[in-house]
Specification:
The structure holds two protein chains of two kinds.
Chain A: E1 4-7, E2 10-14, E3 19-25, E4 31-37, E5 43-49, E6 52-56, E7 59-64, E8 69-74, E9 83-90, E10 98-100, E11 104-109
Parallel strand pairs in A: 2-11
Antiparallel strand pairs in A: 1-3, 3-8, 4-5, 4-9, 6-7, 7-8, 9-10, 9-11
Chain B: E1 3-7, E2 10-13, E3 19-26, E4 33-38, E5 44-52, E6 55-58, E7 65-70, E8 73-78, E9 87-94, E10 102-104, E11 108-112
Classes of the chains: A mainly beta, B mainly beta.
Chain lengths: 110, 113
């Protein structure tokens, strides 16, 4: 069982829809990352959060530390939002490594 | 500005051939550097990390090795590639940006044939 679970694995939406991607993790963290991977493969960091909520443009990320759960929301979705969205937990320490979920493939249709 | 460069972007190599992927960062000193691999249909997995010159830690046993000859240079190598080494390789480093934390290179898609 992966330490970081995402749902859904695949998501198809119509342009303009409100989208939610969920992430659950099984152990304590120092921070939770949301990343975006486009078809070419490059990965872009969207958010790093350890509590509460962060917003950037049409993207909103929330986290509930007690429930070990985070969500990524996209408002007014657009075809250019189509990508794989990955959450990863970050545990501070000697490694500072990330443990990744397997990603959610989002397709926004016009 | 702080940036990370990774090359090549795409590589097709025969089984048994050597490999060298390079990653360099700019705009920082003494960064923590990481090599991750994404196999087909799987999540990213940490291969190596380095906290300083000549300091390499391996997360999983494998056919690959890493080196850090300079502060801002991180190299992933293999003497003889296997088919199972195919995948998408990403270099990353931890930044001081409290909003993002990690910055990733553009990745190398390696196909071993």
């Amino acid at each position: 069982k992966n330490e970081v679970e995402q749902s859904p694995q695949n998501l198809t939406a119509q342009e303009g829809e409100f989208i939610t991607i969920n992430c659950s993790y099984s152990v304590g963290i120092s921070a939770l990352h949301w990343l975006q991977q486009h078809p070419g493969g490059g990965i872009v960091s969207l958010f790093m959060l350890s509590s509460g909520k962060k917003k950037h443009g049409r993207l909103i990320a929330t986290i509930n530390i007690q429930e070990k759960h985070s969500s990524l929301h996209i408002t007014a979705s657009h075809p250019r939002d189509s990508a794989v969205y990955i959450c990863a937990r970050h545990l501070s320490g000697a490694t500072n490594k990330l443990i990744f979920g397997t990603g959610t493939l989002l397709a926004v249709q016009p | 500005s702080q940036t990370i460069h990774q090359w090549p972007a795409t590589l097709v190599q025969p089984v048994g051939s050597p490999l060298s992927l390079e990653c360099t960062v700019e705009g920082t000193s003494n960064p923590n550097l990481y090599w991750y691999r994404q196999a087909a249909g799987r999540g990213l997995q940490l291969l190596f990390y380095s906290v300083g010159i000549g300091q390499i830690s391996s997360e999983v046993p494998q056919n690959l090795s890493a080196s850090r000859p300079q502060d801002r240079q991180f190299i992933l190598s293999s003497k003889k590639l296997l088919l199972s080494d195919s995948g998408f390789y990403l270099c990353a480093w931890i930044t001081d940006n409290p909003n993002y934390g990690y910055t990733f290179g553009s990745g190398t898609r390696l196909t071993v044939v």
